[in-house]
Amino acid sequence: MKTFKLCAVIVFALALTAFAVKTDKSTGYTIGDIATDFSLENIDGNKVSLSDYKDARGFIVIFTCNTCPYSVAYEDRIVALDKKYASKGYPVIAIMPNDTDVKPGDNMAAMKARAKAKGFTFPYVMDEGQDIYPQYGATKTPHVYVLQKTKKGNEVKYIGAIDDNYKDVSAVTESYTEDAVDALLKGKEIKNTKTRAIGCSIKVKS
């Protein structure tokens, strides 16, 4: 009887541990985690993966879309990030995470038109199955993840906002994403590794 009770306790404890691990993973990545690769359709019809970038030192992954006013306000700054850092080894990869039945303005045709109109210099891919944004833990558009290539893989180094003022670029006092990438390029510690993303909620079917 004692043996049976002991086994029951062990099984229960293992069940709780498994549940706890699953719950923790459901919150997405945190600083120091290794981001898994993806293969998502770009606006040019090709698939884009992190592994495609053999010479990259890291990535600026930004979950964004066409229809969110916050994302629209940041479009020029996202283009500027890619122009500044792609040549230094940190290209932008923009991922559209919304369900397009909920937000038709974010469908592939609209993404292509928006990218052309704004002169996007980076991949603009669709998380069609909505499998990738939960892995990252993205909740807003825009939501930034700065990754650094390491021997372990693409390590998450910064999570959060692009900067501290979506309304007016001239009023920005903290350029979080730029500061993070600059620190990595200089081999220094990132001052703010995590900030609160400001934007629209990612749209899913109810």
Please describe the topology of this protein.
Blueprint: H1 2-25, E1 34-35, E2 40-42, E3 47-48, E4 58-63, H2 69-85, E5 92-96, H3 108-118, E6 124-126, H4 132-136, E7 140-141, E8 143-149, E9 154-160, H5 176-186, E10 200-201
Parallel strand pairs: 4-5, 5-6
Antiparallel strand pairs: 1-9, 2-3, 2-6, 4-8, 7-10, 8-9
Description of the molecule:
- The chain has 206 residues and is of the alpha+beta class.
- The chain folds into two domains: 1-27; 31-201, Glutaredoxin.
- Helices cover 33% and strands 19% of the residues.
- It has helices at residues 2-25, 69-85, 108-118, 132-136, 176-186; strands at 34-35, 40-42, 47-48, 58-63, 92-96, 124-126, 140-141, 143-149, 154-160, 200-201.
- The strands form two sheets. Strands 1-9-8-4-5-6-2-3 form an eight-stranded mixed sheet. A two-stranded antiparallel sheet has the order 7-10.
- The longest helix has 24 residues, at 2-25.
- The chain starts with a helix and ends in a 5-residue tail after the last strand.
Characteristics:
206 residues, alpha+beta, Glutaredoxin, 8-stranded mixed beta sheet, disordered N terminus
Summarize the structure.
With 206 residues, the protein is an alpha+beta fold. Helices cover 33% and strands 19% of the residues.
